[in-house]
Amino acid sequence: QVQLVESGGGLVQPGGSLRLSCAASGFIFGIYTMGWYRQAPEKQRELVAYITSDGSLMHADSVKGRFTISRDNAKNTVYLQMNLLKPEDTAVYYCNANRALRTYWGQGTQVTVSS
Questions:
Q1: Sign of the Cα pseudo-torsion (75, 35, 56, 102, in order)
Q2: Which of 1, 28, 56, 111 is spaced 20 to 30 A from 98 at the CA atom?
């Protein structure tokens, strides 16, 4: 049974930091591209960052220089380090695993940036 379990969300003040984690099980983690998406209220889900099986990275322009995606294949976990958070980063953040025609989603974790 495939599971992606996100954690680390919460309420943080503008300028603060959070680290999201996504623990994966039920598939061969190391061969999948892992990504983070987010969805703000009344907006479409958008790609935040991804990391391929060989470690290539992509970060959306809106988070470049502030967020960093990484993975630990030994722990079957992908991370999103979020620094210098802004109110517009407020959203539900979803973990994604993708390979060819297979894609899996986590249940999401809420991140709220507010003073």
A1: positive
A2: 111
pLDDT value of residue 101: 86
Question: Please, are residues 62 and 90 in contact by the beta-carbon 8 Å criterion?
Answer: no
Distances (CA, A) of 106 to 7, 52, 83, 84, 91: 10, 18, 22, 25, 14
Tell me the β-bridge partners of 110. 92
Integer Cα distance of 77 and 54 in angstroms = 15
Give dist(CA 15, CA 28) in Å, integer: 36
Q: What is the pLDDT of residues 46-59, one digit of tens each?
A: 999 999 999 999 99
Rounded to 10 degrees, the C-alpha dihedral 61/37/52/34 comes to: 160
Distances (CA, A) of 36 to 68, 113, 115: 10, 17, 24
